[in-house]
Specification:
The protein is mainly alpha-helical. It contains eleven helices and three strands; from the N terminus they run H-H-H-H-H-H-H-H-E-E-E-H-H-H. The protein is globular, with a radius of gyration of 21 Å. Bound molecules: manganese (III) ion (MN3). Manganese (III) ion (MN3) is lined by residues 69, 73, 124, 207, 209, 211-212.
C-alpha cells in the first residue's frame, strides 16, 4: 500500500486517526513519515525536550533522577493530559495555563485529571527551564531588587522558601509567586496544584515530590532544597518575573 500525503490526510479525516497512523506505520512505505507524525500529533501536547543533558545539573541533581523525572514522570503527565483532552477536543484550543486559571470551566469528569496532569505538565515545563548547568549564585536583575524589597534580603527569602518546602507534608511544590496586588509571596501547594488556580503567578518553583530527590538524597529533603540553589537559572526567572508583571 502506498499512501501519498493527501491520501493520508484524507484517511485521517475520514476515519479514526490512530487507526490510519497504525496502518501507515506498519506499512514501512509511506511517502512522508514526517507529515504523518505532524498530522497525527496535531492538537496533542508534546513533552518539551530537556534544554540540557541529563548530567548537566550534577552533582546537585543526578542524571538518573533527571532521566526518570523528565522521561517517565513528566512524560506520563503529558500522556494522561492528552487522553483527558481527547474526550473534549474543543478544550485543545485553550492553553493548559488557561484551563488551570479557570478550573471550574473544565468538564467535571476530567477536572481532577486536568488539574493533576495539566498541572504536572505546566509545573515541570517551568522547572526544567529555571535550572541550568553552572547556575545559582545571587539573584540578578529586576528579581534581585524585588526579592530585596519583599523579603528584606536574598538570605531571608531563601530561608522562607526552604522552610515552606520542608514543611509541605507529602508531595507538592514550593513557589515564589506574584499576587494580584503585585507583591511577591512564598507559598506551597499540594500534589501538582499550580498557583494560577488561586490567582497567583508562579515566578519560580521547586519540586518537593520524593521523585525529584529520593535517589540521591533519600529522606533528606532539606539537603536537596539547599543544594537546589546551585542550579537555579536567574535569567529565566527574570524572564518569568517580567511575564508575571504583564499578566
Ligand atoms: Mn516532579
Amino acid at each position: 500500500m502506498t499512501l501519498n500525503r493527501r491520501h493520508f490526510l484524507f484517511l485521517l479525516g475520514a476515519t479514526a486517526g490512530a487507526v490510519a497512523l497504525d496502518a501507515c506505520a506498519s506499512g514501512q512505505n509511506t511517502s512522508s513519515p514526517t507529515s504523518a507524525t505532524t498530522a497525527a500529533s496535531k492538537g496533542a501536547i508534546q513533552l518539551p525536550p530537556l534544554p540540557y543533558a541529563y548530567t548537566a545539573l550534577e552533582p546537585y541533581i543526578d542524571a538518573d533522577t533527571m532521566r526518570i523525572h523528565h522521561g517517565k514522570h513528566h512524560a506520563t503527565y503529558v500522556k494522561n493530559l492528552n487522553a483527558a483532552l481527547d474526550k473534549y477536543p474543543q478544550l485543545k484550543s485553550r492553553s493548559v495555563e488557561d484551563l488551570l486559571r479557570n478550573v471550574n470551566s473544565i468538564p467535571e469528569d476530567i477536572r481532577i485529571t486536568v488539574i493533576n496532569n495539566g498541572g504536572g505538565h505546566v509545573n515541570h515545563s517551568m522547572f526544567w527551564r529555571i535550572m541550568k548547568q553552572k547556575g545559582g549564585g545571587e539573584p540578578t536583575g529586576a528579581i534581585a531588587k524585588a526579592i530585596k524589597q519583599n523579603f528584606g534580603s536574598f538570605a531571608n527569602f531563601k530561608k522562607q522558601f526552604n522552610e515552606a518546602g520542608n514543611k509541605r507534608f507529602g508531595s507538592g511544590w514550593v513557589w515564589l509567586v506574584r499576587n494580584k496586588d503585585g507583591k511577591l509571596e512564598v507559598m506551597s501547594t499540594a500534589n501538582q496544584d499550580n498557583p494560577l488556580s488561586v490567582g497567583k503567578y508562579p515566578i519560580m518553583g521547586n519540586d518537593v515530590w520524593e521523585h525529584a530527590y529520593y535517589l540521591k538524597y533519600q529522606n533528606r529533603r532539606g539537603d536537596y532544597l539547599n543544594a537546589w540553589w546551585n542550579v537555579v537559572n536567574w535569567d529565566e526567572i527574570n524572564r518569568r518575573f517580567a511575564e508575571a508583571q504583564r499578566a
